[in-house]
């Protein structure tokens, strides 16, 4: 059974893996909600995780939702002289689309995802801070094309200009098909016979109105004859 990973567990996994990767250096992990994309102090490096999977919980209406498009920003710095490094991390939030409140809600990562997320962070850290190459990034299931449209107006990362989602070809084809069949018929072309609308100029309707007219004439003559 999977469980959510707290901030303390984030640090625990990171420290354990960094102890294995770089036992001679001391590294720290700091949660920084004010971290900005592409705004770096001198000597700092950046790694952006674009397709993490997380669960959100609205603190106002208690609505919960799963998202495969959680963005996590990391800034990294290594002081080689002190053999100490620091990582600052920001998990971008999302708005609840059920109640429409302006309160941004935090996501909780699942235990089975935290290992690969930290592995990718350390791979980027070794490349950018230590100049090592040959590491492999772990591909998340969430990084595969998703056929549901991402609601960027509710995403903090999208609002700050981070492009991390684009519709798949299948989704674009489905939307194009939906648009084609939902458009109103052209005024210069008659509606197809199999359409759902009613054509009052069709033969059945003409016969119906002719019958009604004849019935009215018959009733009028019958009434005059009786008088």
TrEMBL record:
The chain crosses the membrane at residues 202-221. One of its GO terms (cellular component) is membrane. Keywords: Membrane, Metal-binding, Receptor, Transmembrane, Transmembrane helix, Zinc, Zinc-finger. It is a single-pass membrane protein. InterPro entries: R-trans_p, ZAR1/RTP1-5-like_Znf-3CxxC. One of its GO terms (biological process) is protein targeting to membrane. It is found in: Membrane. GO terms for molecular function: olfactory receptor binding; zinc ion binding. Pfam families: Zn_ribbon_3CxxC. The keyword Kinase does not apply. Residues 51-161 form the 3CxxC-type domain. The keyword Transmembrane applies. Its main location: membrane. It comes from the Eukaryota. This is Receptor-transporting protein 1. It comes from Sciurus carolinensis (Eastern gray squirrel). The lineage of its organism: Eukaryota, Metazoa, Chordata, Craniata, Vertebrata.
């Amino acid at each position: 059974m999977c469980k959510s990973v707290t901030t303390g567990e984030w640090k625990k996994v990171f420290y354990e893996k960094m102890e294995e990767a770089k036992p001679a250096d001391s590294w720290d992990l700091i949660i920084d909600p004010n971290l900005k994309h592409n705004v770096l102090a001198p000597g700092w490096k950046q790694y952006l995780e674009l397709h993490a999977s997380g669960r959100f919980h609205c603190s106002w209406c208690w609505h919960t939702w799963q998202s495969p498009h959680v963005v996590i920003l990391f800034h990294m710095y290594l002081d080689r002289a002190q053999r100490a490094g620091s990582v600052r991390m920001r998990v971008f939030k999302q708005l609840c689309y059920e109640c429409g409140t302006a309160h941004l809600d935090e996501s909780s990562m699942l235990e089975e995802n935290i290992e690969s997320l930290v592995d990718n962070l350390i791979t980027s850290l070794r490349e950018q801070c230590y100049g090592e190459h040959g590491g492999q990034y772990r591909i998340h299931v969430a990084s595969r094309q998703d056929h549901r449209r991402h609601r960027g107006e509710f995403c903090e990362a999208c609002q700050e200009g981070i492009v991390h989602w684009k519709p798949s070809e299948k989704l674009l084809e489905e939307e194009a098909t939906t648009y084609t069949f939902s458009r109103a018929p052209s005024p210069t072309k008659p509606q197809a016979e199999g359409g759902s609308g009613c054509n009052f100029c069709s033969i059945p309707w003409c016969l119906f109105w002719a019958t009604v007219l004849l019935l009215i004439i018959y009733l009028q003559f019958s009434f005059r004859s009786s008088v």
